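User: Fold this; tokens only.

Assistant: Input:
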Amino acid sequence: MAHNYNKSSDYEKTWHPIANKFYFSKYPNSSLRRYEGNTPASLSFQKKDIDVSVIRDDKIVHISEKFRQNDYGDLLIELYSKYPKTKGWMHNSEADFLTYFSPKKVYVLKKKELIDWYIQEDFESKLKDALKVFHEENVEKSTRQGIKFQTKQGNLINVTLIQAFNQTRGSKWHTISLAVLWNDLKKEGLGVKDFELD
């Protein structure tokens, strides 16, 4: 069954009041600026993987938001928004933080720290052949496949390749992501923080 991009976008918007409440709890006396819609200003921020900015005094914090229907215990890293030509948000982000919402918990980490780790591990070239086979064997469907990955720190971690087969108004494309357990990211030294949601 094809994944519907427009439905996903509508689902994410239902999260905005919950996300706003969380930001105000961490940044009292601040204001928020969301980058929604198709205005030139909003689109320029969206292209930088910035969904919302928290403004407090003279300081602005840019945030990339991700929302999932369940807490699977992992971070879903978008490798390709349209495989194989258009790379995902790991390659174009200028956000300061990633906030990753699930029904009962939000995970927060510095975006640069995540990107630096991703580049250092060289996932793109190390998984290139596996991605090609994974995609070719599953062209018309959404699917997942677990693999083991040896990190430069010597940790053998379990990661999951996930392909979403998208179809909207006659257009078809594949989004490919990599799911990494939060506990493995912590083992790798990333400063992941998590907070319970009210």
